Amino acid sequence: MPYLLLADTILLLHLAFILFVVLGGLVVVRHPRLAWLHLPAVAWGAAVELSGSLCPLTPLENHFRALAGEAAYPGDFIGEYLLAAIYPAGLTREIQIGLGLGALALNVAIYGRILGRRRFNSP
To answer: Domains of the chain: which residue ranges?
Structure first.
C-alpha cells in the first residue's frame, strides 16, 4: 500500500508539473515573481518533449507501481495518461514535438503580452 500511495503521489506531482509548464504563464501574469520558477520548468518540459526523453518522474512512478504489484506502463506520462484520451492512436514523435512546441509557443505569447503590458504601463 505505501508503494501505491507513492506512485499515485508522483503521478499527481507529474500532472501538476505539466499543468504548471503549460499554464503557469497565466499565474505569472498575476504573480510575476513566479517567472523565476516557471521559466526553468518550461525549459525542462520543452527539452524533455523535444528530445524524446522520459521525465525522471515516469520511471520513478513505474518503480513504485511495480513494488506495489501493479503493471508499469511502457511509455511516458503524457502518452499513458493524457494522449490516450486525446489521441487514441498513441504518442508519436511528431505529436511529442508538437506538444513541446505548443507549450513553448503558448508561454512565449503569454510572456510577450506581460512584457508588452509592462512597457506600455511604464513611464
So the answer is: 2-121
Local confidence pLDDT in tens for the 123 residues of the chain: 699 889 888 888 888 898 899 889 989 988 989 999 999 999 999 898 888 888 888 889 889 988 988 877 766 666 666 646 544 466 788 888 888 898 899 889 988 888 887 776 666
CA atoms of 57 and 62, how far apart (whole Å): 9
Q: How far apart are CA 66 and CA 43, in angstroms?
A: 30
> How do the residues of the chain divide into helix, strand and coil, expressed in percent and rounded to 5?
80, 0, 20
